[in-house]
Write a structure and sequence with these properties.
By secondary structure, the chain is α/β, with parallel strands linked by helices. The protein has one domain: Alpha/Beta hydrolase fold, catalytic domain (Rossmann fold, 3-Layer(aba) Sandwich). Helix content is about 30%, strand content about 15%. The chain contains seven helices and seven strands. It has helices at about 1-5, 25-35, 50-65, 80-90, 120-125, 130-135, 185-195, and strands at about 10-15, 40, 75-80, 100-105, 145-150, 170-175, 210. A seven-stranded parallel beta sheet has the order 2-1-3-4-5-6-7, with helices on both faces. It is globular. The relative contact order is 0.15.
Length: about 210
């Protein structure tokens, strides 16, 4: 067990809006049982009162303080946390640290639900926001790592639900009924573990979609 653990990258979990790291309790426990070293960051404030770029700075600081400079990591972002993580990867140097990057039910192309709040972080998650347009303008850089987007077609927080689709990487569809269940459903947990176990290889930029049943 010890040898397997040493061979695996640490996994950093980044939560969504109005959440804390506690939202990952079941997933973190599942991954630890499979011998992954799991870490999670608490974003403050967690309600969109500051921009997602500011929260991404907290992720960058956490990585710098927690892991040795030469230590590669795997990154998983849920909902808003996926966009925060993208900013870290694409704008704050995370591209040089992260090997596997998984987003779960993240509004890569915005969600109309974000119109319910005037908070800066929420405004950034609106469809066609300048913030998202900027990130999506060079989304191809994510082909440098193993990138996976996981989402459900029944999501009432990400509207339209296909906003979680990305033009690059791998896509995993888990047909659960609720946004939050994406972190607890057995199919989600299995898909996350399988994705994190995939080797880093030259095919990481290909689009391989499949329906999880």
């Amino acid at each position: 067990m010890k040898t397997r653990n040493q061979q695996r990258n640490p996994v950093l979990l980044v939560h969504g809006i109005s959440d804390t790291e506690a939202v990952f309790a079941k997933m973190a426990d599942h991954l630890r049982q499979l011998d992954w070293p799991v870490y999670a960051v608490d974003l403050i404030p967690n309600n969109g009162e500051v921009g997602l770029d500011v929260l991404a700075g907290q992720v960058a600081d956490y990585v710098a303080k927690t892991f040795a400079p030469e230590q590669p990591i795997d990154l998983l972002g849920f909902s808003m946390g996926g966009i925060v993580s993208r900013y870290y990867v694409q704008r704050l140097g995370g591209i040089s640290r992260v090997q596997r990057f998984l987003t779960i039910s993240s509004p890569h192309n915005g969600t109309v639900v974000a119109y319910a709040s005037q908070n800066p972080g929420c405004v950034q998650m609106r469809p066609n926001s300048p913030f998202l347009q900027d990130l999506n303008a060079d989304v191809q850089m994510l082909q440098q790592l193993n990138f996976t987007s996981m989402w459900t077609p029944y999501d009432l927080m990400i509207i339209p639900t296909n906003s979680s689709k990305m033009p690059i990487g791998k896509e995993i569809i888990i047909p659960v009924a609720l946004h939050s269940w994406m972190l607890t459903d057995a199919r989600s947990l299995a898909a996350v573990a399988k994705t994190l176990a995939e080797p880093i290889n030259s095919e990481q930029s290909s689009v391989n979609s499949y329906q999880s049943r």
